[in-house]
Amino acid sequence: MKALFFKLTSLLLVFTFMFILTSCGGSDGVNMSFSYPIPSEPSTLDPQVCSGMAAETAVANLFEGLVRIGENGAIVPGAAEKMDVSSDGLVYTFRLRSGLKWHLTGKFSDILGEDFEKTFDAALAAKDFVFGFRRALSPSTSSPGASSLYAIKNAKEVRNGELPATSLGVAAADTHTLIITLSSKCADFLSLLTEPVSMPCNETFFNACKGKYGKGLSFTLCNGPFYLSKWTSGSSLLMKKNADYTGTNKALPSSVTLYINHDESSYTKKVSDGVYDAAIGVTAASIQADSAECNVFEFQNTVWGLCFNCGDDVLSNRYIRLALCGSFEASKLGLADNHVRAKGLLPSCCRIGGENYREKAGSADFVAYNHEKASDYWRAGLDDLGLSSVTVTVMCTPENEYSVRKLLQYWQQSFGISIKAKADAVELSSLKKSLKDGKYQVALAPVTVSSASAAICLAEYSPESGKNIFSYASETYADIIANAFRSGSAASTAEGCRIAESFLMQNGAFYPLYESSEFLTLAKGVSGIVGSPDGNSVCFASAVKLN
Questions:
Q1: What is the mean pLDDT of residues 99-117?
Q2: What CATH number matches the domain at 2-278+523-545, 3.40.190.10, 1.20.1560.10, 3.40.50.1000, 3.75.10.10?
Q3: Residue 178 pLDDT more than 90?
Q4: Smallest Cα–Cα separation from 319: which of 384, 390, 369?
């Protein structure tokens, strides 16, 4: 066994916003309270089930896995203080640090009993990780991140109900030793362990919740640098410093309040006005107008393109989708000159084994403009559907309505009276909700990645994923991405991901147009906030604020 400690090359790029601090009135900026907006209220804080920026930001602060993301993108100790990897790269042995605890509050008496502080074992042990992984891969859990764990031995078979949970390649050798066996080498395995789906779960507490785990203050048991102190429905979540936390990521703030604010366009102004200490997800336009007194950092985490709802009666037909994709030239849609042309579904922030995915893999293959072929596809699609004409509605933001109307002109020129094409301009928040709910036909919309790992992002479009906004169900695609996870080297994983990305686009699930960014804004005097390049979570443990 070769011992590996956590002075490793970064497997996942992360931006750490640290500045040189000088004394100010004798204060070092610690033990301060922070405020931060989230665009929606989490439906659950169950790490194995949660999704979306709001929930994942909370989970990043309330829970800690075996490893976590540290400064400069390094994978650093979390609950584990040491890791050994077998010579063939298949067996990972983690040694948990001593003194790990779940944080208990008086709110748990209703589900654990009045004497729970005496009867409930709050020690965090290797078995909690075993139970967490088994839950994530249980068919009954329907975890949206389950497919990202398919590198673990027998994971896919357990997820499909073909093997029992006990056959999963995760075992507790003793209280402090966890052994994970992979089916094949995985270049991004440590990055997978930083994801919410890989967090520990206490089986006794989970069972006591009787189906409500993570769905409220009394049902959320934390082991991270913060614990959940208050959850005001529709308003905010209050996280306080966890005195029971014994890891290396101890919280400097006394508390962080996550305020629910659906109006993302107001975030930067509120940071500038002192309402929030930081915010993420704001647009370039709002930054230019509102950020004079703020520090602003960019996340290249979004690709705008045409999303096709493959679950729609009309768009379920592959020929129709290919016809729509191949009947126009993107350069002639009147998009802004400053837009960077997208090279695929994934944006520039994505990584494979610590390296830039796009630089390593190159451009993905998508449907090329070909008027004659598009016309042939269109006729074949109508024949398959038994229709002489179809109606197609394209949702977009008001800013992109001109480009969408240009697109509709191309479609009408190509397909004549056999297509009735309409534009539906809505606000960005409504557009995102329609994509999430699958209530659209075609949408010119932003696809923001939920992880900096290219493989994890692409796994979301597998048939069993709960995050598949295209509703594209293909077992062939599932096999492609599963093989990408099992690839032993960064180069082979990158090529597997490029093949998966190209497969989605060559089947007309997505047509990439341009890249864009989201931004993190920090108020003056605020530093130490660590965020992943996907912009989906922010950790406040090292945050300080000088008044």
A1: 93
A2: 3.40.190.10
A3: yes
A4: 384
Residues 6+ apart with CB under 8 A from 300: 347, 348, 349, 515, 517, 533
How open is the CA angle 450-452-456, to the nearest 5 degrees? 65
240's CB contacts (< 8 A; 6+ apart) are: 226, 227, 229, 254, 255
The reply to whether 2-278+523-545 and 302-515 are identical in fold is: no
Q: Binning pLDDT at 50, 70 and 90, where does residue 22 land?
A: very low
Distances (CA, A) of 307 to 194, 312, 330: 29, 12, 14
Q: Give the distance between the most distant pair of CA atoms in the chain.
A: 77
Residue 93 CA to residue 121 CA, distance in Å, equals 24
Q: Where are the beta strands (DSSP E) in 149-254?
A: 170-174, 177-181, 226-232, 236-241
> CA 282, 394, 260: angle at the middle one, nearest 5?
30
Model pLDDT, residue 481: 85
Task: For the domain made up of 302-515, give the CATH fold.
Answer: Dipeptide-binding Protein; domain 3 (3.10.105)
Question: DSSP string covering 457-516, please?
Answer: HHHTTSTT-TT-TT----HHHHHHHHHHHH-SSHHHHHHHHHHHHHHHHHTTSEEEEEEE
Q: What was the pLDDT predicted at 8?
A: 33
- Listed ranges 188-192, 443-447, 489-493; the one with the highest mean pLDDT: 443-447
pLDDT at 538: 87
Among 278, 245, 204, 216, CA closest to 62: 245
Higher local confidence (pLDDT), 460 or 92? 92
As a whole number of angstroms, the distance between CA 414 and CA 403 comes to 17
Please give the model's pTM, rounded to 2 decimal places. 0.82
Q: Residue 535 region, left (φ>0) first, then alpha (ψ -120 to 50), else beta?
A: left
Sign of the four-CA dihedral 461, 465, 469, 475 = positive
- List, in order, residues 6 or more apart from 529 with CB less than 8 Å away: 17, 278, 520, 522, 538, 539, 540, 542, 543
H or E segment and range at residue 373:
helix 371-385
Query: Are 62 and 45 contacting, i.e. CB atoms less than 8 angstroms apart?
Result: yes
* Model confidence at 152: pLDDT above 70: yes
Q: How confident is the model at residue 297 (pLDDT cuts 50, 70, 90)?
A: confident
End-to-end CA distance of the chain: 50
Q: How far apart are CA 456 and CA 195, in angstroms?
A: 9
Scanning 42-188, the segments in alpha helix (DSSP H) are 53-62, 109-112, 116-119, 126-137, 155-159
CA dihedral sign, ordered 510, 513, 515, 517: negative
- Residue 408, phi then psi, degrees to nearest 5: -65, -35
